[in-house]
């Protein structure tokens, strides 16, 4: 079992190893395959078909497996590397060490929001954006220009909910840990909370289905994965995933939402298999 660390606790060597692994995976073409997967399985309420990535109970187990597959890909090019997490309730500055030139680089410049510093700046030639919902060929960010990051109080509002998820199992419920943390509770863009508001705060390519183009995506979702583990510890008597059984055929969400023992594409893993794991721990 290995450890995923808080990004603020990484040594200089650990930061370089993580960045180098990202760049190697990008050069191999495998990084963009993960972006493509996320885009394919980002299905919104208003679209037809199965939802597994977002606006659905499988948000947590789907991203757990997605993150684990990505971490294994990194380890295949750099053994021992792990995905750190970003606690955005603590590290809130757009000029903090997370955004330093020797780590993820900073915000975008005025005008086109192109990231100009760090290893993922387009001008370095190492991070061309080739898979995206926009025509941008470079990484873009807009750190902190559209509101603030979620507070610990706002996160606790979600963590205190003892129910994992509730019908209609989409972006509409005002209750349930999953939707409160994912951040749709409230229903309007201006009401985005927690996970969603972090994407909005970073801005640029983090604002859409191709958000894994920004390496901070992985640190954000490492923290989200950590939160699911913490929520389980906080509510040991809760059902750690709902719905437990397949929906009835007359349910409006039938064919769109998966129960605990139905496999999630493209992994073939069931949510029940991913409720707990013994591969890594969090520092």
Structural write-up:
It is a single chain. The chain is an all-alpha fold. It has one domain (2-93, 148-282): di-copper center containing domain from catechol oxidase (Orthogonal Bundle), CATH 1.10.1280.10. Helix content is 31%, strand content 2%. It contains seven helices and two strands, in the order E-H-H-H-H-H-H-H-E. The chain has helices spanning 12-28, 30-40, 59-77, 152-159, 177-182, 194-202, 216-234, and strands at 2-4, 280-282. The protein has a two-stranded parallel sheet with strand order 1-2. Helix 1 crosses helix 3 (59-77) and helix 3 (59-77) crosses helix 7 (216-234). 42% of the residues are buried.
Q: Strand order, biggest sheet?
A: 1-2
Give me the CATH fold name.
di-copper center containing domain from catechol oxidase
Order of helices and strands: EHHHHHHHE
- Structurally, the number of domains stands at 1
- Principal-axes geometry comes out as globular
Q: How does CATH name the architecture? A: Orthogonal Bundle
Structural class of the secondary structure composition? mainly alpha
Radius of gyration: 18 Å
CATH class: Mainly Alpha
Query: Residue ranges: pLDDT <50 for 5 or more in a row?
Result: none
Helix content: 25-40%
Average pLDDT confidence is: 94
Report, as a whole number of angstroms, the end-to-end distance. Answer: 12 Å
Beta strand count: 2
Count of helical regions: 7
The biggest beta sheet is recorded as: 2 strands, parallel
């Amino acid at each position: 079992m290995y450890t995923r660390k808080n990004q603020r606790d990484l040594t200089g060597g650990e930061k370089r190893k993580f960045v180098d692994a990202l760049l190697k995976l990008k050069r191999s073409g495998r990084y963009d395959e993960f972006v493509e997967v996320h885009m394919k399985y980002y299905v919104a309420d208003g679209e037809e078909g199965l939802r597994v990535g977002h606006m659905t109970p499988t948000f947590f187990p789907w991203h757990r497996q997605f993150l684990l597959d990505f971490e294994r890909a990194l380890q295949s090019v750099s053994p021992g590397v792990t995905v750190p997490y970003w606690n955005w309730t603590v590290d809130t500055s757009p000029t903090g060490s997370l955004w330093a030139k020797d780590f993820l680089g900073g915000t975008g410049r005025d005008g086109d929001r192109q990231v100009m510093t760090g290893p993922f700046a387009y001008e370095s030639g190492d991070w061309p954006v080739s898979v995206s919902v926009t025509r941008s060929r470079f990484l873009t960010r807009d750190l902190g220009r559209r509101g603030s990051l979620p507070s610990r109080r706002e996160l606790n509002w979600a963590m205190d909910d003892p129910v994992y998820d509730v019908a209609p199992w989409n972006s509409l419920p005002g209750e349930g840990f999953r939707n409160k943390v994912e951040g749709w509770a409230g229903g309007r863009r201006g009401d985005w909370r927690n996970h969603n508001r972090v994407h909005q705060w970073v801005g640029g390519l983090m604002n859409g289905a191709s958000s894994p183009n920004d390496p901070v995506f992985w640190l954000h979702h490492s923290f989200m994965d950590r939160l699911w583990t913490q929520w389980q510890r906080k509510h040991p008597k809760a059902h750690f995933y709902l719905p437990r059984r397949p929906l009835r055929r007359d349910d409006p969400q039938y064919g769109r939402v998966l129960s605990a023992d139905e496999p999630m594409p493209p992994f073939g893993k069931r949510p029940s298999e991913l409720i707990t794991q013994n591969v890594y721990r969090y520092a």
